[in-house]
Design brief:
Elements: H1 39-51, H2 60-80, E1 87-92, H3 98-111, E2 115-121, H4 124-137, E3 141-145, E4 160-166, H5 169-180, E5 185-190, H6 197-206, H7 212-233, E6 236-242, E7 253-259, H8 263-278
Parallel strand pairs: 1-2, 1-4, 2-3, 4-5
Antiparallel strand pairs: 5-7, 6-7
Length: 280
Protein backbone atom coordinates (compact mmCIF):
# COMPACT_ATOMS: atom_id res chain seq x y z
CA UNK A 1 0.00 0.00 0.00
CA UNK A 2 1.51 3.38 -0.97
CA UNK A 3 2.28 5.72 1.87
CA UNK A 4 0.17 8.82 2.20
CA UNK A 5 1.27 12.13 3.63
CA UNK A 6 -1.46 14.22 5.26
CA UNK A 7 -2.66 17.61 4.10
CA UNK A 8 0.21 20.00 3.51
CA UNK A 9 -1.32 23.31 2.40
CA UNK A 10 -0.33 26.34 4.44
CA UNK A 11 -2.94 28.79 3.15
CA UNK A 12 -4.65 30.86 5.80
CA UNK A 13 -7.98 30.79 3.95
CA UNK A 14 -10.61 28.52 5.41
CA UNK A 15 -12.14 28.06 1.99
CA UNK A 16 -11.19 30.16 -1.01
CA UNK A 17 -10.32 33.84 -1.03
CA UNK A 18 -12.15 36.38 -3.17
CA UNK A 19 -11.50 36.43 -6.90
CA UNK A 20 -10.44 39.96 -7.88
CA UNK A 21 -10.09 38.88 -11.49
CA UNK A 22 -13.81 38.09 -11.83
CA UNK A 23 -14.95 40.54 -14.55
CA UNK A 24 -18.12 41.77 -12.86
CA UNK A 25 -17.04 41.19 -9.27
CA UNK A 26 -18.34 38.38 -7.11
CA UNK A 27 -21.93 37.50 -8.08
CA UNK A 28 -24.45 36.77 -5.38
CA UNK A 29 -24.72 32.99 -4.91
CA UNK A 30 -28.52 33.11 -5.00
CA UNK A 31 -28.43 34.76 -8.43
CA UNK A 32 -25.48 32.79 -9.76
CA UNK A 33 -25.77 31.91 -13.45
CA UNK A 34 -22.31 30.47 -14.08
CA UNK A 35 -18.79 31.94 -13.97
CA UNK A 36 -17.68 34.52 -16.49
CA UNK A 37 -14.54 32.64 -17.49
CA UNK A 38 -12.43 32.93 -20.60
CA UNK A 39 -9.23 31.19 -21.59
CA UNK A 40 -7.39 34.47 -21.01
CA UNK A 41 -8.44 34.27 -17.33
CA UNK A 42 -6.91 30.82 -17.03
CA UNK A 43 -3.77 31.86 -18.91
CA UNK A 44 -3.34 34.81 -16.57
CA UNK A 45 -3.59 32.63 -13.48
CA UNK A 46 -1.26 29.97 -14.88
CA UNK A 47 1.32 32.68 -15.52
CA UNK A 48 0.81 34.20 -12.07
CA UNK A 49 0.90 30.92 -10.15
CA UNK A 50 3.45 28.83 -12.01
CA UNK A 51 5.76 31.21 -13.92
CA UNK A 52 5.71 34.80 -12.63
CA UNK A 53 9.29 35.55 -13.62
CA UNK A 54 10.65 38.62 -15.36
CA UNK A 55 10.98 38.01 -19.08
CA UNK A 56 9.23 34.62 -18.90
CA UNK A 57 5.81 33.77 -20.23
CA UNK A 58 3.51 30.97 -21.25
CA UNK A 59 4.80 28.62 -23.92
CA UNK A 60 2.67 27.26 -26.75
CA UNK A 61 2.02 24.04 -24.83
CA UNK A 62 1.00 26.09 -21.77
CA UNK A 63 -1.61 27.91 -23.86
CA UNK A 64 -2.95 24.58 -25.08
CA UNK A 65 -3.14 23.42 -21.47
CA UNK A 66 -5.03 26.61 -20.65
CA UNK A 67 -7.60 25.75 -23.33
CA UNK A 68 -8.08 22.29 -21.81
CA UNK A 69 -8.33 23.61 -18.26
CA UNK A 70 -10.86 26.25 -19.33
CA UNK A 71 -13.05 23.57 -20.92
CA UNK A 72 -12.73 21.29 -17.90
CA UNK A 73 -13.61 24.11 -15.52
CA UNK A 74 -16.85 24.58 -17.46
CA UNK A 75 -17.56 20.91 -16.76
CA UNK A 76 -16.79 21.45 -13.07
CA UNK A 77 -19.28 24.33 -12.95
CA UNK A 78 -21.93 22.23 -14.63
CA UNK A 79 -21.36 19.32 -12.23
CA UNK A 80 -21.22 21.52 -9.12
CA UNK A 81 -24.58 23.06 -9.95
CA UNK A 82 -26.16 19.61 -9.49
CA UNK A 83 -24.35 18.73 -6.27
CA UNK A 84 -24.99 19.63 -2.60
CA UNK A 85 -23.75 23.04 -1.51
CA UNK A 86 -20.73 21.85 0.52
CA UNK A 87 -18.36 19.94 -1.74
CA UNK A 88 -15.44 17.55 -1.42
CA UNK A 89 -13.42 17.76 -4.63
CA UNK A 90 -10.59 15.36 -5.50
CA UNK A 91 -8.07 16.41 -8.15
CA UNK A 92 -6.61 12.97 -8.97
CA UNK A 93 -3.20 12.57 -10.61
CA UNK A 94 -3.10 16.29 -9.94
CA UNK A 95 0.38 17.14 -11.12
CA UNK A 96 0.99 20.71 -9.97
CA UNK A 97 -2.65 21.14 -9.00
CA UNK A 98 -3.78 23.23 -11.96
CA UNK A 99 -7.35 21.93 -12.09
CA UNK A 100 -8.14 21.74 -8.39
CA UNK A 101 -6.68 25.15 -7.56
CA UNK A 102 -8.27 26.97 -10.49
CA UNK A 103 -11.60 25.20 -9.97
CA UNK A 104 -11.64 26.56 -6.42
CA UNK A 105 -10.45 30.03 -7.40
CA UNK A 106 -12.35 30.66 -10.63
CA UNK A 107 -15.47 28.49 -10.36
CA UNK A 108 -16.46 27.42 -6.87
CA UNK A 109 -15.60 30.63 -5.04
CA UNK A 110 -17.60 32.84 -7.45
CA UNK A 111 -20.48 30.38 -7.05
CA UNK A 112 -20.37 30.91 -3.30
CA UNK A 113 -19.68 27.21 -2.76
CA UNK A 114 -17.71 25.85 0.17
CA UNK A 115 -15.28 23.23 -1.06
CA UNK A 116 -12.68 20.97 0.49
CA UNK A 117 -10.17 20.42 -2.32
CA UNK A 118 -7.85 17.41 -2.14
CA UNK A 119 -5.00 16.88 -4.61
CA UNK A 120 -3.58 13.38 -5.06
CA UNK A 121 -0.16 13.21 -6.72
CA UNK A 122 2.66 10.68 -6.34
CA UNK A 123 5.56 13.01 -7.26
CA UNK A 124 6.71 14.96 -4.16
CA UNK A 125 8.17 17.79 -6.28
CA UNK A 126 4.83 18.34 -8.00
CA UNK A 127 3.03 18.19 -4.66
CA UNK A 128 5.33 20.94 -3.37
CA UNK A 129 4.65 23.02 -6.48
CA UNK A 130 0.90 22.57 -5.99
CA UNK A 131 1.11 23.70 -2.35
CA UNK A 132 3.12 26.78 -3.34
CA UNK A 133 0.67 27.66 -6.11
CA UNK A 134 -2.31 27.21 -3.78
CA UNK A 135 -0.73 29.56 -1.27
CA UNK A 136 -0.17 32.18 -3.96
CA UNK A 137 -3.79 31.80 -5.10
CA UNK A 138 -5.18 32.00 -1.57
CA UNK A 139 -6.74 28.55 -1.93
CA UNK A 140 -6.79 25.99 0.85
CA UNK A 141 -5.52 22.74 -0.70
CA UNK A 142 -5.04 19.38 0.96
CA UNK A 143 -2.09 18.06 -1.04
CA UNK A 144 -1.41 14.37 -0.50
CA UNK A 145 1.64 12.54 -1.78
CA UNK A 146 0.06 9.30 -2.89
CA UNK A 147 -0.58 7.09 -5.87
CA UNK A 148 -4.13 7.52 -7.18
CA UNK A 149 -4.66 3.78 -6.77
CA UNK A 150 -3.95 3.93 -3.04
CA UNK A 151 -7.42 3.74 -1.50
CA UNK A 152 -6.24 5.08 1.88
CA UNK A 153 -5.55 8.47 0.28
CA UNK A 154 -9.14 8.90 -0.87
CA UNK A 155 -11.93 10.51 1.15
CA UNK A 156 -15.20 8.63 1.44
CA UNK A 157 -17.89 9.62 -1.07
CA UNK A 158 -16.27 12.71 -2.59
CA UNK A 159 -18.70 15.01 -4.35
CA UNK A 160 -16.57 15.40 -7.45
CA UNK A 161 -13.47 13.73 -8.87
CA UNK A 162 -11.58 15.51 -11.64
CA UNK A 163 -8.54 14.27 -13.54
CA UNK A 164 -6.89 15.91 -16.53
CA UNK A 165 -4.59 13.64 -18.53
CA UNK A 166 -4.07 10.82 -16.06
CA UNK A 167 -1.47 8.89 -18.03
CA UNK A 168 -1.72 5.26 -19.07
CA UNK A 169 -2.74 2.89 -16.31
CA UNK A 170 -3.22 5.77 -13.85
CA UNK A 171 -6.52 6.53 -15.60
CA UNK A 172 -7.84 3.07 -14.83
CA UNK A 173 -6.42 3.06 -11.30
CA UNK A 174 -8.16 6.32 -10.44
CA UNK A 175 -11.45 5.10 -11.92
CA UNK A 176 -11.23 2.00 -9.71
CA UNK A 177 -10.46 4.15 -6.66
CA UNK A 178 -13.19 6.71 -7.42
CA UNK A 179 -15.77 3.94 -7.83
CA UNK A 180 -14.61 2.28 -4.60
CA UNK A 181 -14.85 5.63 -2.80
CA UNK A 182 -18.41 6.03 -4.15
CA UNK A 183 -17.70 9.38 -5.79
CA UNK A 184 -20.90 11.15 -6.78
CA UNK A 185 -19.60 12.66 -10.01
CA UNK A 186 -16.46 11.82 -12.00
CA UNK A 187 -14.87 13.94 -14.74
CA UNK A 188 -11.86 12.14 -16.22
CA UNK A 189 -9.75 12.93 -19.27
CA UNK A 190 -7.30 10.03 -19.74
CA UNK A 191 -4.03 10.53 -21.56
CA UNK A 192 -2.13 7.88 -23.52
CA UNK A 193 -3.91 4.51 -23.73
CA UNK A 194 -2.06 1.75 -21.88
CA UNK A 195 -1.19 -1.57 -23.45
CA UNK A 196 -4.08 -4.00 -23.10
CA UNK A 197 -3.66 -7.77 -23.14
CA UNK A 198 -7.44 -8.03 -23.51
CA UNK A 199 -7.44 -5.82 -26.58
CA UNK A 200 -4.54 -7.77 -28.09
CA UNK A 201 -6.31 -11.09 -27.54
CA UNK A 202 -9.57 -9.75 -28.93
CA UNK A 203 -7.79 -8.40 -32.01
CA UNK A 204 -6.22 -11.79 -32.63
CA UNK A 205 -9.52 -13.58 -32.10
CA UNK A 206 -11.26 -11.29 -34.56
CA UNK A 207 -8.52 -11.69 -37.12
CA UNK A 208 -7.56 -8.02 -37.21
CA UNK A 209 -4.51 -7.16 -39.32
CA UNK A 210 -1.33 -6.54 -37.36
CA UNK A 211 -0.58 -3.16 -38.89
CA UNK A 212 0.35 -0.87 -36.00
CA UNK A 213 -2.10 1.99 -36.80
CA UNK A 214 -4.99 -0.49 -37.05
CA UNK A 215 -4.09 -2.25 -33.81
CA UNK A 216 -3.55 1.06 -32.03
CA UNK A 217 -6.98 2.36 -33.03
CA UNK A 218 -8.60 -0.94 -31.97
CA UNK A 219 -6.83 -0.88 -28.59
CA UNK A 220 -7.97 2.68 -27.94
CA UNK A 221 -11.57 1.79 -28.77
CA UNK A 222 -11.43 -1.40 -26.69
CA UNK A 223 -10.00 0.37 -23.62
CA UNK A 224 -12.50 3.23 -23.97
CA UNK A 225 -15.36 0.74 -24.16
CA UNK A 226 -14.15 -1.13 -21.07
CA UNK A 227 -13.82 2.10 -19.09
CA UNK A 228 -17.33 3.18 -20.07
CA UNK A 229 -18.95 -0.13 -19.23
CA UNK A 230 -17.08 -0.42 -15.92
CA UNK A 231 -18.51 2.93 -14.84
CA UNK A 232 -22.03 2.03 -15.98
CA UNK A 233 -21.84 -1.39 -14.32
CA UNK A 234 -20.88 0.40 -11.08
CA UNK A 235 -24.04 2.50 -11.22
CA UNK A 236 -22.87 5.60 -13.08
CA UNK A 237 -24.77 7.32 -15.85
CA UNK A 238 -21.89 7.89 -18.25
CA UNK A 239 -21.28 10.12 -21.24
CA UNK A 240 -18.13 10.23 -23.36
CA UNK A 241 -17.69 13.58 -25.07
CA UNK A 242 -15.02 15.56 -26.86
CA UNK A 243 -14.40 18.38 -24.40
CA UNK A 244 -11.97 20.28 -26.65
CA UNK A 245 -11.20 20.12 -30.36
CA UNK A 246 -8.81 17.36 -31.50
CA UNK A 247 -6.54 20.13 -32.79
CA UNK A 248 -5.90 21.16 -29.18
CA UNK A 249 -4.91 17.68 -28.03
CA UNK A 250 -5.28 14.14 -29.38
CA UNK A 251 -6.47 13.20 -25.88
CA UNK A 252 -9.74 15.11 -26.09
CA UNK A 253 -12.24 12.58 -24.71
CA UNK A 254 -13.89 13.28 -21.38
CA UNK A 255 -15.71 10.65 -19.33
CA UNK A 256 -18.58 12.41 -17.55
CA UNK A 257 -20.09 10.03 -14.98
CA UNK A 258 -22.79 10.60 -12.36
CA UNK A 259 -23.70 7.96 -9.79
CA UNK A 260 -27.40 7.20 -10.14
CA UNK A 261 -27.52 3.56 -9.06
CA UNK A 262 -30.05 2.31 -11.60
CA UNK A 263 -30.02 -1.52 -11.19
CA UNK A 264 -31.33 -2.36 -14.66
CA UNK A 265 -28.78 -0.17 -16.41
CA UNK A 266 -26.00 -1.53 -14.21
CA UNK A 267 -26.89 -5.16 -14.96
CA UNK A 268 -27.07 -4.48 -18.70
CA UNK A 269 -23.67 -2.79 -18.61
CA UNK A 270 -22.17 -5.63 -16.56
CA UNK A 271 -23.47 -8.15 -19.12
CA UNK A 272 -22.03 -6.13 -22.01
CA UNK A 273 -18.71 -5.79 -20.20
CA UNK A 274 -18.56 -9.54 -19.60
CA UNK A 275 -19.23 -10.22 -23.28
CA UNK A 276 -16.57 -7.72 -24.32
CA UNK A 277 -13.96 -9.14 -21.98
CA UNK A 278 -14.80 -12.67 -23.13
CA UNK A 279 -13.24 -11.72 -26.47
CA UNK A 280 -10.01 -10.89 -24.70
Amino acid sequence: MPTTKPATSHSTAAGVSGAPDTPAGRPDAARYNGPVLARSDVEGWLDRLYIDAAGAGLRREDRKKAAEITALLAEVERAAARLPRDLVVVDAAAGKGYVGILAAKLVLDPMGRRARVIALERDPARVAAAVAAADRAGVHLEARTADVGGRAAWPSEPSLVVALHACGGAGDALLDAAIAARARTILVVPCCTPASAGADAAAEGLGLPRHAPVRRAFTEAFVAAVRTLRLEAAGYETEVVSFVAPTVTPYHLLWRARRVGEPVRSREAADRLARLLAHG
